[in-house]
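Standup notes
- DV: blocked on the single-chain target, sequence here:
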Amino acid sequence: MVAYANYTAREFLTAPEDAIFSRLVRSDAVSGFSQLSHKQGWSWVESVRLMKSACEQLIAANPTFASIGVVLEYRIPRREKRLDAAFLFRDTIAVVEFKAGSAAATSEALTQVADYCLDLAYYHAVSQGKKIVPIVCSTEAKSGQVVPTSDATLIEDIHCVGEACFAPLLIRIASEDRKVNSDNIAHERWCASPYRPIPGVIETTVSLFNKHGSDDINAALADRDTIDQSIQAIASIAQDSRERNQKTLCLRTGVPGAGKTLTGLRIAHNTDFLEAGWRSVFLSGNGPLLKVLKAALAADYKDHQGCTKVVAQRHAESLLHSVHAYLAEARKTQSPPSESIVIFDEAQRAWDAAKMQKMATRQRSFGAVSELSSYPEPTSEPSQILEVMDRHAEGVVVVALCGSGQEIHDGEAGVGEWITARNQSYPHWRLVCSASAIERAGVDAALANAEVWSSMHLGASVRSHRTSEHAAWVDAVLTGRPKDARRYVDHAGFPIALVRRLDDARAWLRKTTLGSRRFGLVASSGCARLRPYGIEVSAGFRKELDYAEWFTAPRGDLRSSFALETAATEFECQGLELDRVAVCWGWDLTVGDGELLPRTFRGTNWNNVKRAREREYTINKYRVLLTRAREGLVIWVPLGDEEDQTRSMLDMNRLADYLVDCGAQPVERPANGSFLP
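- DV (later): unblocked, structure below
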């Protein structure tokens, strides 16, 4: 049930109040929401009374307003919430949050109505491109106010009104509605509109593993053609592998934000696999990602089950697994694991043989007997995964999810190591991959004996709701192609701002991030000279921080990203996302003569990075940082200090000019010195 009730203004005005109330009660009884409370019933009575009065005044002001659509209790998928009411004009939608008996709009009410409006603007097909006006009607309020939003958002300022001002506000909105040659939005069409939310990684993980809301998640992902085709392709490969006792390696690539992790989670929860008796396991070598997801799973499980924190943490630990721990456990026996399907997330970061040996040697030197020090010979993680799964006598599938251009540290093997491991030691395995995987590995598909499927690559970002080309913009910026970059900029759908002061970046985030959306600072781990500005990125400092709290704690918690006191580096935020991000740019990646110049800080000086692989790591760090945002980002380029040679003003001025040439929009500090109202 999408909405409890919907009418034209004329129909709503003429319908008896008790009939409307009965319809709301009946709809609520079958909606799956909590049992109707006395407070909710009283709120509906008050809301219906006010809306009837408003409809009467609208029609009296202009008889053509009789066809305005009126919707009550529209369900917002995934939020387990319903917006109270919506008035549908020609090119404008007014979303109303009623607070019966309240004398003022609370911050909670402002957050609620902003969330509803943003969700409509981003996900609701009929609402996209419309003017969306949020309204909080506190019935006992004696005066009204307007809470400004920002030009960098998709919704209008929030109107806070009392009973006396409610109808006049709707009349003004209707009168100012754009004069287009069309009728008012039909309420039936609006209620039946496709609603296509793209959930975040944390939300998807919680919903799929803890089961509540998973239908909405599955529907949202299935609605994206490329994602659905990819999932179907892997499902068919798994079925073939099962029927033919075939061992198969799938290398699925994708641009940043394309939904690799989301679809990997969907594959892990495929009901067809479970019904066939095939167990699956979701692995990752990304420690911070696992820590954040486990914390979110545990918190949600505790809230819904009413169990202790310890029990909830144990539950979360059983669902997501470190690839290092998984392999260490597998090496204790030569028996095949219980799983027939392995999904390896962030597989481009799998360690090569040298890295595995280095880590094992380091742990042995400290007298540690651990998951890594048990390896007898230096084989890569891809090779070890294939060895473990090759123990099965019947068919198995390994799905390696590889991000394009996201190798960020030494020892990360990249997609080529998966192909090498298969070709050298497991040639009997079937290899299905994308053309991108073959290209990045630098091999010939025929020589590699690989099947190249287009469905094995996700080429469009779904992280950014209103622009699928942000990843292309980032790639153009990082490869020195400003002309191409400008073609991909869409400031209406995804604002990209540029400021020169850190406080201005913080103010931009606070001003433009509405509702319960999350924002935060991110910075490269190589930004050693951001310390004078209060941004510390050293490994020792980051080790003391709890990034699970940074990603999940609410506003007001100083440990959270909302505090804007600490920055997450590429290591903490790879695979995760925020709604809005401030990228703190440092002197480790400057620009000159049309190309980006990666540098590293040693002692008291910056040194140019000469080795091609290490240059790529630095550029990829910024690729990760620039693709973390879902709804918009601001880039802070420090002014520098002419007295400090390690913070060159010239370098940063050049960089700022380059980013503006690429399409970033400079935001000047207002005359009053503040971005906030």
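- Follow-up: Residues 3-191 form one domain.
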